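Project standup — Tuesday

K.O.: blocked on the structure for the chain from last sprint. Re-posting the sequence here as requested.
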Amino acid sequence: EHGLLGLLFILIILWLFMGSRLSFLIALAVPFSIAGALIMFNILGISINVTSMFGLLMVTGVVVDFGIVVAESIYVRHTQNESQEEAAVNGAVYVFMPLLVALLCNILAFMPILFLGGMMGKFMVDIPKAVILTLSISFLQSFIILPVYLRKFKIQTTSDSKSFFSFTSKTRSAFNNFLHCIIDKNYSIIIKKIIF
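H.V.: unblocked you, prediction finished:
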């Protein structure tokens, strides 16, 4: 029940800021990753207990991160007049290495728990296994399944001005202009002074 409630909250937040189609496709990473992790539990002989379920719940909100970055990269390229197939390929390739590094950093952060000794090690060993498997499956889903869906589904690049949620696109546009202003006028000047 709490897991479904968390998924609902994730879906609502994604819907507000990324649109209905993108939010639905990205939110699929949650059940897909958890189901994939449970299948791997069965294959690897990992028991489903309190600690392994805690590991799954720990990364419930994180598994959508890969999908958000990939979908946003594809969305931006599609708004730059690339075809859906080109945007899906180029957008995924563009963010592959940064997200791979992020995945490896998360894995390395939990790896030491696998080597804990004593009763504490036996009790906590399933947490990193659950986290590593779930994040890895989410990463694969974001680069194998999500781009295929985004290549087939029409990505909405303009918002209806009469839509109740049109304010989110206006907010994103205003924030984008603000960032460009900061980077072009202030941040670049500071960097030039530091370097030169």
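K.O.: great, moving the ticket to review. The chain has nine helices and no strands. Residues 158-164 have pLDDT under 50 and may be disordered.
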